[in-house]
């Protein structure tokens, strides 16, 4: 990996790690649905501006419906679930749990898409589950409400894992599509999903927008424009430059950045047992993302999981 790609990788990890901090700031004030909707709406606006700036042709080549559906699974649902978790979980917790995305990809691939699970991946899944178990038995995650937050994070990572396979089946295997167009379409699909949730929340309880200060609005802008629009551009550029497997190494770097930002801005601390849970998940990721032997790779199709 060249220095330019390494720089993009570190910047992407910093942005995605920061997303959990920003959600932790915004969601308790505005609520989960407005946080998620604001994120995808700003992300779509940023991507639309980029496409206009680059004068790219905005054509979905008959894949608009598939792209919108991918947005529901890959952005709308997980962003809503992580925003719900941000109301009860520290940002560092959510960042660590997000790292289980490739593990969910392995399980979903085996259960629904006939993927082969080798010894390394099986060991990785088991160790990763052990790491999650350690996290859920330490610190604030022992609170019943926080356990629902952990469940929301894991459901979000399952959405990411499923979306990777659906992207291959609905987009790549049907001739492909410009990655920036896919990213824009996915954000638009997420907007369509989240808008009813936003309206439902507004009807159920008055929105506390007037009480939100500049800090909350700045965090929401950063969440949408930096952690979503810019981050997707960086991620797809990395995939083009170094391939999906190396691009997925960003998963290792998101938890340290997430914990660092939350410590710096919110004063969150990490206990020894929490660090152990994160270390087990990191080991699991290494086993899952470790290249297999040539014969095993030939037997299994390419894999790609979104984050």
TrEMBL record:
The chain crosses the membrane at residues 41-56, 68-89, 95-113, 122-139, 145-167, 179-203, 215-235, 247-266, 272-289. The keyword Transcription does not apply. The keyword Cell membrane does not apply. It is a multi-pass membrane protein. Keywords: Membrane, Transmembrane, Transmembrane helix. Residues 10-136, 147-289 form the EamA domain. It holds the Pfam family EamA. Its main location: membrane. It comes from Chromobacterium aquaticum. It is found in: Membrane. This is DMT family transporter.
């Amino acid at each position: 990996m060249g220095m330019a790609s390494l720089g993009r990788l570190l910047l992407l990890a910093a942005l995605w790690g920061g997303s959990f901090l920003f959600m932790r700031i915004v969601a308790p004030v505005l609520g989960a649905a407005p946080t998620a909707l604001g994120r995808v709406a700003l992300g779509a606006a940023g991507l639309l501006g980029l496409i206009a700036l680059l004068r790219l042709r905005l054509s979905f080549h008959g894949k608009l419906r598939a792209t919108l559906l991918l947005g529901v699974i890959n952005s709308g649902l997980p962003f809503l679930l992580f925003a719900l978790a941000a109301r009860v979980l520290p940002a560092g917790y959510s960042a660590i749990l997000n790292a289980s995305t490739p593990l969910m990809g392995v399980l979903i691939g085996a259960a629904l898409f006939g993927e082969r699970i080798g010894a390394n991946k099986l060991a990785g899944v088991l160790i990763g589950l052990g790491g999650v178990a350690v996290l859920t038995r330490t610190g604030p995650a022992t609170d019943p409400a926080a356990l629902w937050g952990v469940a929301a994070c894991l459901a979000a990572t399952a959405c990411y894992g499923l979306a990777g396979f659906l992207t291959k089946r609905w987009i790549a295997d049907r001739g492909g599509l410009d990655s920036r167009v896919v990213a824009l379409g996915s954000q638009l699909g997420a907007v369509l999903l989240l808008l009813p949730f936003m309206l439902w929340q507004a009807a159920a309880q008055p929105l506390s927008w007037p009480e939100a200060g500049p800090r909350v609005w700045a965090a929401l802008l950063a969440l949408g424009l930096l952690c979503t629009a810019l981050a997707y551009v960086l991620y797809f550029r990395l995939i083009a430059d170094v391939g999906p497997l190396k691009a997925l190494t960003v998963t290792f770097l998101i938890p340290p950045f997430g914990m660092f930002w939350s410590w710096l801005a919110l004063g969150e601390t990490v206990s020894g047992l929490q660090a152990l849970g994160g270390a087990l998940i990191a080991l699991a990721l290494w086993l899952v993302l470790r290249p297999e032997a040539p014969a095993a790779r030939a037997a299994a199709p390419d894999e790609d999981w979104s984050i």
